[in-house]
Amino acid sequence: MAPSFAVHARRGAAALATAAVLGAGLAPAASADASPSPAAPGLFGASDPKFDGVFRQSMALLAQHTAGVASPKQAVDWLAGQQCADGGFTAYRADAGKACDAKTPLDSNATAAAVQALAALGGHGPAVTKAVGWLKSTQNEDGGWSYNPGGPSDANSTSIVIGALAAAGQDPAKVTSKRGTSAYDGLVAFQLGCDVDEADRGAFAYQPDKSGKLAANADATAAVALAGLGKGYAAEPAGKDNVDPKPLPCKGDEAGTSDPKAAAGAASAYLARIMDKEKDGPHLAAVQPGADKPAPDFGNTAETVIALAAGGHRDAAAKPLKWLEQNSAAWAKQAGPAAYAQLVLAAHAAGADPRDFGGADLVSQLGATGPKAEAAASPSEKKDEKQEEKKAKDNKGLGVWWVVGVFFVASVGAGFLLSGRKKKNQL
């Protein structure tokens, strides 16, 4: 399955946990993203960026922009430097100075996320144009997108690309495949229509199964509820007046709707309905890898808040937003910058204050996971940096033995993790 915003937000902590088990991660999992990574200067978070580097960075920069914070130049340059010559992005390039080749696994999700961030920041017109050109070149005949070029379209990838097109000033209805099918046509094809049980009407599937049947998927539905409005993650509230989300207007054997905004409204109605059924508060739930029971899905709940607010469904958005304010702190601390960013964007869309989110300053917490702004360094900090550089030079001969010692400690921790886990952690 192509990773959604929520999946990407969870990957930071999961990737570090895997690295720790292998003896490669030298930081405790509990503080996975408490500080920027020394291995990738400019990158937000300390967890392994292999799977989510570009996505994580894009969401962090986008969230800071909506909060009125000027992102550090080093962080912006890091993201811009990840782009390949043909315009596409991959999840992470360890050596951005090395040219991309045919083996570089470019993907629509990383590229679309980068477009949304760079377009919002401004000053990156050529990079955005090239990235949008690459996305258009990878559009499938059905109008949608797959995670990697050449695969079958899925709702999540199609959704994030539509958000990128809108952020770049493109009309998704006019972005068509060689067959003349638009991006919106590809999107609404994943919606469950009036021929299914009433409880599932309006929901979206990630992809049809081998027989062509669609199954309701909350992850995909949350993504499409926003994309159907022609909006990306930095969505603004639709207005001060509340509009209740409307279910599919089913009469007889109608299949549903081909209008993307109506489809998004029906998706929102489905999400609001299933969230209200949770006994411990309005939120989405999912069965996590290795678990046998559903657990709160903080990421997709935040994404749903963005979609509901962007659609003008203020009352429906207010309930899960309040639940997030009361319950998301531990999740965000563990998951890292993408999670903080997602909560900032949810607060922004719903008209809440991200600097007082259940008593937490999400903007500061997000900033603490990234590089410091150049202008923020005081004379005393610069003096300390010079002293540290001198100390590092003096202790150069001890470096090898320090690494050996830390690796030993990390290995002990890895053994403990392995002995305590009976099920494989899947990303």
UniProtKB/TrEMBL annotation:
What is the name of this protein?
A: Terpene cyclase/mutase family protein
Q: Where is the composition biased (Basic and acidic residues)?
A: 380-392
- Extract the SUPFAM superfamilies matched here: Terpenoid cyclases/Protein prenyltransferases (SSF48239)
Q: Per the record's keyword annotation, is Ribonucleoprotein included, yes or no?
A: no
- Determine if Signal is one of this entry's keywords: yes
Give coiled-coil spans as residue ranges. none
Tell me which positions the record assigns to the signal sequence.
Answer: 1-29
Specify where the region named Disordered lies, as residue ranges.
236-261, 362-392
Annotated TM spans = 399-418
Keyword entries, A-Z: Membrane, Signal, Transmembrane, Transmembrane helix
